Amino acid sequence: MKITFEEGTYTIEELSVAPLQNRTYCIFDLEGTGIDPTVEGVTQFGAVRYRREEGVAASSFSSLVRASKPIPEAVEKLTGITNQEMLQAPLFNEVYEHFCNFIGDQVLVTHAGYEYDLPMLERHCLEYGLTMFTNKVLDTKAMFTYIHPEVTDVVSTDFLIHYYGLDTDGIHRHDALEDCGIIARIFEYVLEEYEQQGLDYFTAVPDKRMRRFVIPEMYLKK
Predict the structure, then answer these.
(1) With 90 as the cut, is the pLDDT of residue 125 above it?
(2) Residue 203: phi, psi to the nearest 5?
(3) Residue range 4-56, pLDDT digits in tens
(4) What pLDDT was estimated at residue 214?
(5) Strand runs (DSSP E) across 69-216, as ranges?
(6) Are 15 and 204 in contact (CB under 8 A)?
(7) What would the mean pLDDT of 209-215 be, rounded to a whole number?
(8) Helix, strand or coil for residue 196?
(9) Is the pLDDT of residue 222 over 90?
(10) What does DSSP assign to residue 156?
(11) Cα 214 vs. chain centroid, distance in angstroms?
(12) Chain segment 60-102, per-residue pLDDT in tens
């Protein structure tokens, strides 16, 4: 798969997944020290297996990761992951190995992963001398955008929670494993819409553009 970033948008190429409906997926999510994937460190992995007919499986994977830089106070409050916990957390290479064993060769599903999770993982793998996994990856943001050209908003998790009317009371948002559960629920609705449109495949089209999330200018100031 090829991801091309442009000013405010991105496109994807060289990805095709079929069938969509009758298969087991692995949904994953990362937490990090911040929102800029070019400089931030991974603090947590979360992953669950999912099949539409059965929902989220009991098996799951979750682990903190010792970040390469301190977690800002605001991010500690947002995620609930503290710098104190980082002192005892395993290193990225250890957690990544276990994560790869968990996902196997299954198709992965994430949200906004094309612009955050995957670039972050690729950078970390490069820094640690590890091989990036080659699993196909579906992104609910891209899948939704492909069938909703009328939507001009940035398709964030919060946007889709509101769009599909999901109840997230009692869920610890910004915990990687619990966010996987939310992504699974979003993915269920997206798969349903694809089925209603007679689509049992997702194929990347180079001229389809997704709006990128905006990193606040103040955040970018060093």
Answers:
(1) yes
(2) -125, 125
(3) 999 899 999 999 999 999 999 999 999 999 999 999 999 999 999 999 989 88
(4) 77
(5) 107-110, 137-139, 202-203, 210-211
(6) yes
(7) 86
(8) helix
(9) no
(10) -
(11) 16
(12) 999 999 998 999 999 999 999 999 999 999 999 999 999 999 9
Interatomic CA distance for residues 180 and 191, integer angstroms:
16
- For residue 154, the one-letter residue type is V
Helix, strand, coil % over all residues of the chain, rounded to 5:
35, 25, 45
Q: Is 101 exposed, middle or buried (0-12, 13-18, 19+ CB in 10 A)?
A: exposed
What's phi and psi for 55, nearest 5 deg?
80, -155
In the chain, beta strands by DSSP E: 2-6, 9-13, 16-17, 24-32, 42-51, 55-64, 107-110, 137-139, 202-203, 210-211
Q: What is the mean pLDDT of the chain?
A: 94
- Token reading at 53: 């007919």
Tell whether the model's pLDDT for residue 216 goes beyond 80: no
Domain assignments of the chain as residue spans, ordered by start: 2-214
∠ CA 43-210-134, nearest 5°, is 55
The upper half-sphere exposure of residue 135, i.e. CA atoms within 13 Å in the direction of its Cβ, equals 22
* Distance separating alpha carbons of residues 83 and 67, to the nearest angstrom: 9
Q: C-alpha angle 103/107/111, rounded to 5°?
A: 95
CATH architecture type of domain 2-214: 2-Layer Sandwich (3.30)
pTM of the model: 0.94
pLDDT of residue 220 exceeding 60: no
Structure-token match 């060769």, residue found: 105
Q: Measured between alpha carbons, how far is 185 from 143 in angstroms, rounded to an integer?
A: 14
* Structural contact between residues 38 and 183, judged by C-beta atoms closer than 8 angstroms: no
